[in-house]
UniProtKB/TrEMBL annotation, chain A:
Cytoplasm as UniProt keyword: no
HAMAP family documented for this protein: ATP_synth_a_bact (MF_01393)
Source organism of this protein record: Streptomyces physcomitrii
Transmembrane segments: 49-68, 105-129, 135-155, 201-222, 253-269
Function: Key component of the proton channel; it plays a direct role in the translocation of protons across the membrane.
Location relative to the cell: Cell membrane; Membrane
Topology within the bilayer: Multi-pass membrane protein
Lineage start: Bacteria, Bacillati, Actinomycetota, Actinomycetes, Kitasatosporales
InterPro entries per the UniProt record, alphabetical: ATP_synth_F0_asu, ATP_synth_F0_asu_AS, ATP_synth_F0_asu_bact/mt, F0_ATP_A_sf
Keyword line: ATP synthesis, Cell membrane, CF(0), Hydrogen ion transport, Ion transport, Membrane, Transmembrane, Transmembrane helix, Transport
Annotated PANTHER family: ATP SYNTHASE SUBUNIT A (PTHR11410)
UniProt keyword annotation of Lipoprotein present: no
Cited CDD domains: ATP-synt_Fo_a_6
Family indicated by similarity: Belongs to the ATPase A chain family.
Name of the featured protein: ATP synthase subunit a
Length: 272, 185
């Protein structure tokens, strides 16, 4: 566990238990970075941006190595990449949208899955140790792409009136509560849905990173006198939470693309 | 300490749910890089290979199927030939048996015929010998008897004609008695 930015801050404070200084708890400030270049008022370039671009290159590099010259009889790397590709393609897209209609969206969903996963993975990669997706801008961009896609698909598939019925869950049998139901559905589908789509990922990564920070800082902070015992416990928690985060990162990437597919499927489906 | 305090004060101004523009742009660029490479080049690549592989596997299965069908037909053919050969062999054996039986019967008949011929020849020979012997005997007996009678009567009974008749009558009488005795027996 080396130079995480906030850890660096904790080190800078050089503050330990019984030294008469308070616990430098992680908070919103742990997710703010001094720009590596530029000025926060205008254009700038900071660590999450660097990690985002670096992550892109890692993904492209990995798949380039695996798929640039694919073999009929795959090597090890190609086999691993194929397994990942196949998991998203068949396990997610074909399962939710269907094989015939879903095939078109496979590249997008595969890209989304590996992009989100990589951005999440930065959280536990030494030196990086920051999940890019815990900055709301990144999940928001992805959710926006998905939102634009499924909304435009709905219009294309059902026309103006059909799309409106699709968004509002129009159902005559509801009778007098129909206007209320339609209002709620409209609000839920068009406004809440993209927001929750982005925030679900963001909040999970945010919370995970905060937890990791909490135990990491605590391990350092309590490293004084009798506190060393607690520090050890805290450090064990760091390791446990890292393993847990590894799991959560994959799950969140999976959930993100699963929801994407569900939205696309909903847009393509006939509304009754 | 200063940096932390400064960041903390900045954090109060910042809402974590309001994204700054530069990060949105970088996020978009980062994703577009990934999507561009995967969608335009790498995934079509692998899809092609996966399709080829599927075809290769199915082709292999088809080949195996064809080979199996051929093997089956060859086996059928072989079995049919074997059955035919067995049938033929049985037929030949049957024929040979029949022929053998015919041959044996023929040979037996031939043997029988030859035996009978030999027996008949033997009988004829015996009969002829007997007749010759009887003839000779008759002549000798006649001569002896005549000579004896001539001596006894003192008169030459050289007259052959009479002599012969007398002897014959006598012998016929003998024959008659003999055959009578035989019949009685």
């Amino acid at each position: 566990m080396s130079a995480d930015s906030t850890q660096v801050l904790a080190f800078e404070t050089d503050c330990h238990l019984f030294d008469g200084c308070g616990f430098p708890a992680p908070g919103l400030h742990s997710f703010l970075f001094e720009p590596l270049w530029g000025d926060t008022e205008g254009l700038y370039f900071n660590k999450p941006m660097l990690l985002a671009l670096l992550g892109s290159f890692v993904i492209v590099g990995f798949f380039w190595a695996a798929f640039a010259r694919p073999k009929l009889v795959p090597g090890k790397l190609q086999m691993v990449a194929e397994a990942g590709y196949d998991f998203v393609r068949r396990g997610v897209v074909h399962e939710t949208i269907g094989k015939r209609e879903g095939e078109k969206y496979v590249p997008l969903v595969v890209s989304l899955f590996f992009f989100v996963w990589m951005m999440n993975l930065w959280s536990i990669i030494p030196l990086a140790q920051f999940p890019v997706t815990s900055i709301i801008a990144y999940p928001m961009v992805l959710a926006a792409i998905v939102y634009v896609l499924w909304v435009s698909l709905t219009f294309k598939r059902h026309g103006l009136v059909g799309a409106f019925k699709n968004f509002t869950g129009y159902d005559k049998s509801l009778g007098p509560v129909l206007p209320l139901a339609m209002t709620i559905e409209f609000f839920s589908n068009l406004i809440v849905r993209p927001f929750t789509h982005a925030v679900r990922l963001f909040a999970n990564m945010f919370a995970g990173h905060t937890l990791l920070l909490l135990f990491t800082i605590a391990s350092w902070y309590m490293l004084n006198g009798i506190g060393i015992a607690y520090s050890a416990v805290s450090f064990v928690m760091v390791i446990v939470m890292t393993a847990f985060e590894l799991f959560i990162q994959a799950v969140q990437a999976y959930v993100f693309v699963l929801l994407t597919c569900t939205f696309i499927q909903g847009a393509l489906a006939e509304h009754h | 300490m200063n940096a932390l305090v400064q960041l903390a004060s900045e954090a109060e101004k910042e809402n974590p749910l309001v994204p700054p523009w530069p990060e949105l742009v970088i996020g978009l660029i980062a994703f577009v890089i990934v999507f561009g490479f995967l969608a335009k080049k790498l995934l079509p690549n692998i899809n092609k290979v996966l399709e080829e592989r599927r075809e290769a596997i199915e082709g292999g299965m088809e080949k195996a199927e064809a080979a199996k069908t051929e093997a089956n037909s060859v086996l059928e053919q072989y079995k049919a030939q074997l059955a035919e050969a067995r049938h033929e062999a049985a037929r030949l054996r049957q024929e040979a048996q029949e022929q053998g039986a015919v041959l044996i019967a023929e040979m037996r008949a031939e043997g029988q015929r030859q035996r009978e011929e030999i027996i008949a020849a033997g009988h004829a020979q015996i009969e002829a010998d007997r007749k010759a012997a009887a003839q000779t005997l008759r002549q000798d007996v006649g001569t002896l008897a005549t000579t004896l009678a001539g001596k006894l009567v003192g008169e030459s009974l050289e007259d052959h004609a009479r002599q012969s008749r007398t002897i014959d009558r006598f012998l016929d009488g003998l024959d008659e008695t003999a055959s009578k005795a035989e019949a009685a027996r």
